[in-house]
Fold this sequence. Notes:
This protein is of the alpha/beta class. Among the domains are: about 15-135, Alpha-Beta Horseshoe (Leucine-rich repeat, LRR (right-handed beta-alpha superhelix)), CATH 3.80.10.10; about 200-240, no CATH class. About 25% of the residues lie in helices and about 15% in strands. The chain has helices at about 70-80, 100-110, 120-130, 135-140, 195-205, 220-230, and strands spanning about 15-20, 40, 60-65, 85-90, 115, 120, 175, 185, 210-215, 235-240. The strands form three sheets. A six-stranded mixed β-sheet has the order 1-2-3-4-5-6, with no helix packed on it. Strands 7-8 form a two-stranded antiparallel sheet. Helix 2 crosses helix 3 (about 120-130). It is flat. The chain starts with 15 loop residues before the first strand and ends with a strand.
Amino acid sequence: GLRSIPSLSQFNRLKYLWLNNNKIQDLTFLIKNYCLTELYLNNNELTDISGALKHLCSLQILFLHNNELKELGKTVKELKGMISLHTLNLFQNPLACDPDYRLYVIYILPSVQLLDRKLVTQRERESAFHLYNPERSLLVQSIAFGKRVNTPLGAPLGSRRCIQPARRLIMPSVWKHSDNGRLLCSFCRVPFENPEDAILVRAMTRSLTEFSSVDWNKVATCQERRLQNKAEPLEKLTVQFR
């Protein structure tokens, strides 16, 4: 039945805190508890957490379900800096009634693995990415090892191969007469009939592709480099081709 909590700043190494099943409406008492990793605030009367939790960058588990949180954007923005947060409960809040609530939380908080007691799937991550970043999603779908892929992002790997037939370049058939009456082809001076053909020709003649690989098993760790007090040259294999 607690409605307010005195400041906990004297417990600056506090890691685990259970305050569930109370009537708390204000979280200013947590202003100095930077080491918190688990925080249980479910079943309270919280209406807004703006400015109260964003400093808790070490938080891994946060329970906020069954409160009165209404603004989805402000609530999720407050948690955005928690890169270690893997378990989050926000259900039974008014904000959870938003039709895209779950996908929005998954997109803004990519570190969360368990949301509202349900595992976040790869398909949900892809759907959230496609919904809230459509331009980059289309770009990712269209590039695959130098080949264009027209299948959806969630399609099986076996169906992502480029199966388009080789396209014949359409060269413009422009001819002219020389001074001695012979026909000369001047296609090199005239643009391609299809702009994509011009792009393809330029890519084949001028672009260079480079792939590099490193055997990380042979790379010394930071501790090994400090102990050996010397830096060995990195073995890198580079292949270039057009």
